[in-house]
Amino acid sequence: MQSTHTMLRLISLAAFSSMASMRVCDPMLVALAEEFHTTTGDAAAVVASFAVAYGVLQLVYGPLGDRLGKLRVIIGATAACAVFNAVTAMAPGFTVLVVARAAMGAAAAGIIPLSMAWIGDQVPYAQRQETLARLMGATVMGMMAGQWFGGFATETLGWRAAFAVLSALFAVAAVLLWRQVRAASATPEAIAQAAADAGGRPPFSLAGYVAGTLALLQVPRVRWVLTVVALEGALAFGTLAFVPARMVDGFGLSASAAGGAMVLYGVGGLLYSVFARRWLAWLGERGLALAGGTLIAAGLLLLAWSPLVAWAVVGCFLSGLGFYMLHNTLQVQATQMAPEARGTAVTLFACLLFLGQSTGVLIVAFSVDRGWLPPVFTAAAVGVLLLGAAVSRKVQGKGPAA
User: Fold this and answer.
1) How far is residue 176 from each of residues 111, 131, 132, 253, measured CA to CA in Å?
2) What pLDDT digit, counting tens, does each position of 15-65 carry?
3) Is 271 within 8 Å of 295 (Cβ atoms)?
4) Which stretches of the chain drop beneath a pLDDT of 70?
5) 401 phi/psi in degrees, rounded to 5
6) What global pTM score does this model have?
7) What is the CA radius of gyration of the chain?
8) Residue 198 has what pLDDT?
9) Are 119 and 128 within 8 A, CB to CB?
10) Do 124 and 339 contact (CB within 8 A), yes or no?
11) Given this model, what pLDDT does residue 354 score?
């Protein structure tokens, strides 16, 4: 049990770094547009390329984690993130920057979803939402740190410094994880279990993987969860990248101040992770989903139409709290929708989330240069409110999904 707790802490460090790298570019968009002589909408390619690669590579990491072991793949992905962040820090031009961010997304794809799948393997359902909320706490802290430090570095140290720091952080996480896994695998119990797993594991084949994935997609519950998370990614996660731009262009904040305001998005998520057990007992899964969709909608409307920056900042907080209420409920559904192939199922879930996000980013990027952010945020608010209501009707109260 102590080994499991230690591993969870180290996985959380890798997840923290992964989310920080994902969101570090959000407050940089305006500055990147100026440095590389492009528009803010075009500069959003550094966000979209990460999200697309992150989503598509889930199709690889799922079966790879089931085949080679989730922890081994997480370590390899974390080490690759250290390398690609260093490359990003040295990018000589915008095209190389976009490609490096895509490679970064491809590497980071193997961390958080497989961590969720590992928790699904190790933790009983009754404790799973609370444990996932702890992992979520690390990802939220990473998001907060990435958004704040991205803005701070842009104005003080230079945007390249942010990626250099992230590279070092990933390197530390990879080394610590490798040492912990090496120590744990040396016990007699672990050696015996590894031999048993290897003996009963069929050889990998592309045809078998495709057939298994298609079989998963035949399950109604799987199709429903994947559809819902894709919509969530487009409506709630796709708009997130442009909140700092809204703060800069709509309220005249600096990049560092906009990144600081976005920290409150993470504070909302962190608050949820701390009180997840109490709120689950009080509201149940249905109540969490409905409350989450409602809060996201309220936050987006404040960001779209508030005449005062203070209310827009409150909107950041409400959006963060609501997103993690809704998303944590969907995460639990993902870990339970196909227990016999949990690694593949959870990474399919992440794939659709980030493909949805990239679609949302592309749509909002088209609107940002035309001054359409307020109506686009409004449309997203209506959509996510309906989505929360739909999820609330489908999940099963306080218990497992039907």
Assistant:
1) 15, 21, 21, 39
2) 999 999 988 998 888 888 888 888 888 888 898 899 889 878 877 887 788
3) no
4) 1-3, 129, 185-206, 343, 396-402
5) -65, 150
6) 0.70
7) 20
8) 44
9) yes
10) no
11) 79
Residue 225's Cβ-side half-sphere holds a number of Cα atoms within 13 Å equal to 29
Name the residue type at position 138: A
- Taking each helix axis from N to C terminus, what angle separates 70-89 and 112-122, rounded to the nearest 10 degrees? 160
- Structure confidence by residue, pLDDT tens digits, 112-126: 888 888 887 777 777
Q: Smallest Cα–Cα separation from 21: which of 133, 164, 152, 135? A: 164
Report H helices in 90-124: 94-108, 112-122
Crossing angle (nearest 10°) for helices 159-185 and 125-155: 150
The answer for residues whose C-beta is within 8 angstroms of residue 389's C-beta and 6 or more apart is 290, 293
Measure the CA–CA gap between 119 and 133, rounded to whole angstroms: 11
Distances (CA, A) of 57 to 96, 121, 155, 343: 20, 21, 33, 13
Provide the greatest CA pair distance for the chain. Answer: 65
The Cα 154–Cα 29 span in angstroms is 10
How many other C-beta atoms are found inside a 10 Å radius of the C-beta of residue 379? 17
Residue type, 376: V
Distance, in Å, from the CA atom of 349 to the CA atom of 58, rounded to the nearest integer, reads 8
CB 87 within 8 A of CB 386: no
How far is the C-alpha of 299 from the C-alpha of 122, rounded, in Å? 35
* Residue of 77, 37, 75 lying closest to 57 (CA atoms): 77
Measured distance CA(297)–CA(380) in Å, rounded:
8
| Residue 103, both tokens | 């490679």
Handedness of CA 9, 318, 147, 378 (dihedral sign): positive
Q: In this structure, is the dihedral angle defined by the CA atoms of residues 306, 310, 311 and 312, taken in order, positive or negative?
A: positive
User: Phi, psi (5° rounding) for residue 33?
Assistant: -60, -40
Tell me, rounded to whole angstroms, the distance of Cα 20 from its chain centroid.
10
Kindly give, in sequence order, each residue whose CB lies less than 8 Å from that of residue 223, ignoring residues fewer than 6 positions away: 217
For residue 189, the model assigns a pLDDT of 45
HSE-up (13 A, CA, CB side) for residue 186? 6
